[in-house]
Structures are given as C-alpha cells and as structure tokens.
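Protocol step 4 of 5: obtain the predicted structure for the target chain.
Materials: sequence only (see below). No template structures provided, no constraints applied. The aim of this step is simply to have a reference model before the mutagenesis design in step 5. Sequence pasted as it appears in the construct record:
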Amino acid sequence: IKECDWSSDVCSSDLLAALGGGVPPIVALALIACATVASGWTMISDARSRARRAHADLRRATNDLVQLVAIGLTTDQSVEEALRFAWETSSSDGSAGAELLRAEIVAAPLRGEPVWETLDRIGRRHNVRELCEFANSLERQATHGVSIGATVAALAAGMRARALDQLEREADRANANLAGPTAGFVVATLVFLAYPLAVRISEAFGG
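Step 4 output (structure tokens):
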C-alpha cells in the first residue's frame, strides 16, 4: 500500500478504488473524513503541546535568571555584572529558554538596544509577565539610578513561591491520576486472593 497525503484528491480516489469492492461510497467517504479529522487534530494537539513546553521552559529560564541576578546583587555586584553572571550561569543547562535569553542579551548591545527593552519584548511576545517586571526594574535602575536589589529580591521570592505551588499542583494531579489504576489493582488483588476462600466456603456449605 503506497503512502499518500490525506489532503490530496488523488489519495481519496485511490482509497475509494481500494475500498470500492464491497464498501458503499458513503462509508468510504466517511472513513476518509474521519481519517482527515483525526490527522488534523493530532497535528493541532502536537503543536499546542510543543507551545506549552516552550512556554514552561522560558518561564523556568526566566526564574533562573532572576534568582541568579538577585544572588549577584547581594554580593555587591553591579547590575551589569549580576546580569552577566546570571546569563552565563543559567545558559549552561542548555535549555531552549536559557539559550534564547542568552542569545538575546548578548545580541542586544550589538543592535544598539537596551537589555531591558529586549527582555520586555521577549516577555510580551511569550506572555511571561515576570520577565516584563524584571525588565522594568532594569529600566528604572538604568534611567533613574535607583537601587533595585530589594525589588529583584522580592520578585525572585514571588517566583520561587509560584514555582513551588506549581510543583505541588502537578504532584497532586499525578497522585490523582494514579488513584484510579491503584484502586483497581487493589480491588483485583483482593478478588484474586479472596476467590479461593469463597470457593472453599461455598463447597463446605454444599454450594
């Protein structure tokens, strides 16, 4: 059977010819429609899954960046030094989100663009609110010379709390998903163990 593109008329006609022996045309058309819908839904679901993973990966990279900048600022580093320390350290894990942030931060000066504008643009494009808040803090420091150590520390603490809450929710969902199969296994085991006893009791009473 040759491979074919479900979206092509040639494939549909070939399938109709192959099924034409004993299958009514309306049934063959229904099968083609179902296959097309299933294929399209699979592609859409896969694209959405990839987008969710990419978004979660960028959020993790943002969290790492902010946490490391907060640590750098507590060691009397300047904002530029803390930011450099953060992206050099966070990009070492090789994740796509960390690589995106590293590449954009490095390229920003070459484009003549302030780092905070770069980070704000990425945050808005990918709907990562914390990255926009961090960019706003960097902008205030650069344009007004205000200290942002306390602001970044508070942002880092909030992100840690949200990350912990997310982990707890994911753990709860995983436990809930396991509850059904586990209960079924326990019931099946009890039935398996109790059946011989039930048979012997039944035989003892002449059942």
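Step 4 remarks: Residues 149-204 form the longest helix (56 residues). The radius of gyration is 29 Å.
Proceed to step 5.
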